Amino acid sequence: MKLGQVTIKDIARELNVSTSTVSRALKDYPGISDDTKKKVKDLAEKLNYRPNAVALSLRKSKSFTIGVIIPEVVHFFFSTVISGIEEVAYANGYNVILCQTNEKLQRELSSIETMLDNQIDGLLVSFSKETENFDHFTRLMNQNFPIVFFDRVPDIENTVNVTVNDFNGAYEATKHLVDQGYKKIIHLAGPKTLTISKKRIDGYKAALQDHHLKQKPDWIIPCPIGTQQESYEITKSIFKNNKELPDGIFASNDIAAAGAMMAVKELGLKVPEDVGIVGFSNWQFSSMIDPPLSSVAQPGFEMGEKATEILLEIIEKKKEANWEPKTIVLETELLVRKSSKK
Amino acid sequence: MKLGQVTIKDIARELNVSTSTVSRALKDYPGISDDTKKKVKDLAEKLNYRPNAVALSLRKSKSFTIGVIIPEVVHFFFSTVISGIEEVAYANGYNVILCQTNEKLQRELSSIETMLDNQIDGLLVSFSKETENFDHFTRLMNQNFPIVFFDRVPDIENTVNVTVNDFNGAYEATKHLVDQGYKKIIHLAGPKTLTISKKRIDGYKAALQDHHLKQKPDWIIPCPIGTQQESYEITKSIFKNNKELPDGIFASNDIAAAGAMMAVKELGLKVPEDVGIVGFSNWQFSSMIDPPLSSVAQPGFEMGEKATEILLEIIEKKKEANWEPKTIVLETELLVRKSSKK
């Protein structure tokens, strides 16, 4: 064994079963007999098998397929990234297969395994909100398997990333609210586990600080689920339980902003007269709601294109330099609509 | 050869190259030398190779992966179908890989090939708007490869389908406009190639006929692209070039309805006072636009669940009966919002 590690294939060969049977037996999936499960597990233990130690470097031929791991296809931003990925992939003769994790770590793990079984040549990854440990990626990278992370960048070394300038985007959005005369600006924040959430919080705080506006810790409110209903309820309770009413809302995404707008309107307040609102990501619907929502547009298509270009360069080893760790940061653009124009 | 047909594998073995090299050489993809391309093509001709004659039945083990071919992941309806598919698939220990065709036949063909290379156990398909010939599916079905079609049902025999009652949905939407007092109702129709478009047109016509309302051939306007911009422009030109102004619009999807609404408002007409509008598919944004859009909700999640249940039954041959051709029709629900309430 090249890597000194036992793989699923070794176990499968030894027991004369398929690799997927081994993989599934180890994970206690249904459809495998208890007898087989026991045999597989016993041998795995005896051989000191470690999951994911797929001997990737033993593969002979390319599949001309790249895998994409995304949290949610319904997310407008991700769907534009996918379009960018496909443009570059198809133009270069590669096919694209997608797996959606639904923000679940377990699905992320099994999706990666499925894709590796399927002999993809490389991976484009935006990991799930649940992912806090990145060993499953590190293991692959240690075996020189090409991975490029997009949008959500892991807090580990030696990765290749394409992301957007979330700090600047949040700074510009908050500064715009300040410029329009809003003074008590709250932030509906994203999940704590994501670096992009932290950067948007930092941008929000920096803009308030630079303009000498009041900051309160309880004005940064996490919306971990990210649904419209969640931010609707959170916003209602903030406005009901605060003596000092906020007059500005910067939300970490448009869905949260739309929920907040609904709550504000229901409380009899006017947007933008009483409360100014800015979202993030510029969803398809944002220009159509009432009033049209200001939002920070991310270059999703460009991000998909760039990430795929780099991945294909790594795969085809056209430029060895591209295998070097690096992070490409794309700029955002603030789209001012009626929801934040006093 | 079991099926009496030469496969890519035979050519690959003979020339001592990989199957993907053969596949790509036959398609004139980049990255393959002209010399190799010539060798492959010559041998393919000599052996009378026919594309897609993959000897599927020769496969030994299951991959516990199902493939899903969808036109567009950004389409809200399809994203809810995907969620339904994943619920059932994961609960049964199957993984799901997606390929997006972007409504292009060429991508549909290459996606299917990629998925078959990847040893999927079965396919869930909603084909592209460009697909008018279904030979690539028929060939697979003739080899007993499990396929279930959802939403878009092909006009060929012996298929297993899960669809919604588009006729009834369109009938109810049109009848609702009639009930509200609208009399000159136009229909923004979907692409002609799709059966669902035809059924929605039929439902619209039947409702007008049953209520003795005027019908004009040029009141059924095709919107083949399906973007908001397209229906915006079409609606503007209808209202500008018609002496007899329409007072109702039934659109075959919410994006088209939203574009029409924008055009109507820009012309100084009021929704719903002057023009009533109803869409189809109940996109996420529909309740948030101004005024909130009435729409025909399709049971996307349920459709995904049902299609996957049937596919897994076929794959696991639990019920041989399920391999029999059949079409399951799910009912729609009209959601009445402000855009159509006089």
Oligomer: homodimer
Task: Name the helix and strand elements of chain A from N-terminus to C-terminus, one letter apiece.
Answer: HHHEHEHEHEEHEHEHEHEEHEE
Total E-strand runs of chain A: 12
- % residues in beta strands of chain A: 15-25%
| Strand order, sheet with most strands of chain A | 2-1-3-4-5-11
Looking at the structure, the CATH topology of the largest domain in chain A is Rossmann fold
Largest sheet data of chain A: 6 strands, parallel
Cα-based radius of gyration of chain A, to the nearest Å = 23 Å
Number of domain modules of chain A: 3
Biggest interface in this structure? Answer: A-B, 52 and 51 residues
Instruction: Note the gap between the termini of chain A.
Output: 68 Å
Please tell me what the overall shape of chain A is: elongated
Q: Can you give the helix content of chain A as a percent range?
A: 40-55%
| CATH class designation of the largest domain in chain A | Alpha Beta
- Quick one: CATH superfamily of the largest domain in chain A? Response regulator
| Low-pLDDT ranges of chain A | 52-60
